[in-house]
Amino acid sequence: MWAAINVDPLGGGLERERAPLAMALVIDVSGSMSGDPIAHVLASCEIVADLLGERDQLAVVTFGSHAGVRCGLTRVDDAGRAAIKAALTGVVADGNTNMHGGIEVGAGVLVTATAGLRRAMVVLSDGQPNVGLSSAAQLAALVVSLRPIGVSTLGFGLHHDEDVLAAIATAGSGRYAYVPDPRIARVDLARAALAHGGIIADGLELEIELGDGVELLQLLPATALRHGRGGVRAAIGDVFVDAGRLIAVELALDLGARSSRGRLATLTVTSRTPDGAAHRVSATLDVDIRAGAPVVDRDASRDVRFVQADAARIEAREHADRGAAPAAVAVLRKMIARIDALDGFVADDGSALAELREQLHDEALNYERASSNVEKMHQRKATMMAQVGRAVHRQRPPLAARLIGFAGPVAGQTFDLYTETVIGRSAGNEVQIAHASLSRAHVRVLFVGDRFVLQDLGSTNGALVNGARVNAAELTPGDVIRLGDAELRFELVP
User: Fold this and answer.
1) Is 443 within 8 Å of 424 (Cβ atoms)?
2) How far apart (Å, rounded) are the C-alpha atoms in residues 98 and 65?
3) Which residue of 144, 207, 220, 442 has the smallest Cβ count within 10 Å?
4) What's the CA gap between 158 and 162, in Å, rounded?
5) 3-state DSSP assignment of residue 60
């Protein structure tokens, strides 16, 4: 038997509920970051300083062969911003990639933060750690030891280690973002930094006290379990104002000794809120055992499938990494069939599960397609940061622009561009092109600074600008964009 556990936020939106931050930007300044990457990263750090307010504190740490503090925690008022920006001048990229040292120095800075501030860091790197602790497991364990400090990560270009950065972000209850072009760094850096201010409860732990004749077989997402007299305990991360936690448990039941009703388990979640208060919430998992056909709980079934589908994506990625693409495809196709078989499931209805089903379909196509190594590297990184259930915000940029469709399924159509415009076949995008040649979320177009930049989101058929396949490209008026069978022209609006 499977059961779903939802831990939902009760706070308001991020714009109302963001806690004040003590934020450390931990920047890779190894030799591979020289040139445009480090220049854009430093400019992005200035953007973060402009986004934070007087309630917040910001520090800058750099790491190459060694790690050091460029600017300690500084109150982000006008004088503080000037001091932070001055500390960013003269940074030179050189040396190795001591990510371990950067994280430790960043944590050392954050322990000095004023009481009441939520402590977090964002690690930015384009390479693979090669000094000190360097594996995904080692660095994740380091980050776990630093809790409640939150950690998010940004990976630049094709040659960073996404497994390491994703493991760090997961351990730090943060978010991993892939930045194929440093020009778009400011968007994902700002999003990663501010997200930690949206945590309304951290250090969540789930305790499961099992009833007689009940055995816990597995918990998803997979996490370390601790067994004690009170039952089984597991750390389940933080809850953000815009995203809770969804967990699935598989139980084995000995029905022989049970009456017609039974309590399978008592579930307890403990957590801390930003003011340091401890909270404890309990619920029970009860079941009726009756004669006749079983009664299916549709909501619970969908939640369980959602968690299982995420686990299937991880399993498929592991198969593909071993060169077993057919096995990866089989895992994803099997999961798609299980979703399709759910009572009441409707494909393409805009629900989170329908969106995730389409994500599974796209990833299966990616594994089936004969792609180059470079294309596979890009697709892997992009799909690891894919977000299902993303909120749509149609905010107008100061510079008006549009895409004019002239061939394929978009011929004769016009699409306005926003500050962030995701284009693909999903109805959950700002621009929907409901055609099989496009991926669910094919590309996004970002307004960055004073220009528009297109970023491929790991699509199966790729994105072409003026006939050349791109992972990211700055758009200029008249550029021709091909997405699957759709052809569009980029124009500024007079």
Assistant:
1) yes
2) 5
3) 144
4) 9
5) strand
